[in-house]
UniProtKB/TrEMBL annotation:
Alphabetized UniProt keyword annotations: Molybdenum
GO term, biological process aspect, one: molybdate ion transport
A Pfam family that the UniProt record links to this protein: TOBE
Name this protein carries in UniProt: Transporter
Mop domain ranges (all copies): 5-70
Species, as recorded: Duganella alba
Coiled coil (residue ranges): none
Domain of life: Bacteria
Length: 73
């Protein structure tokens, strides 16, 4: 399956660096050229998508809120 078009603008191509498996949900670290993007998804989805360390993926980030914190003085 290939994604030809999607409305999510924040897309980060990368490779899976680490998967921390849990009984229901798992943590997936994706190494991108902008840094590590971490996703928490169901363990079943990891199996269904056949995700493994080294798999090439696209992390799609969709948020309804962006918070800003001031650094320094």
């Amino acid at each position: 399956m290939a994604i030809s078009e999607i409305n999510v603008r924040n897309q980060f191509r990368g490779k899976i660096k680490e998967i921390i498996f849990g009984p229901v949900v798992s943590e997936v670290d994706v190494e991108t050229q902008h840094g590590i993007v971490t996703s928490v998804i169901t363990s079943r989805s990891i199996q269904d998508l056949d995700l493994k360390v080294g798999s090439e993926v696209i992390a799609l980030v969709k948020s309804t809120e962006v918070s800003i914190a001031k650094i320094g003085n």
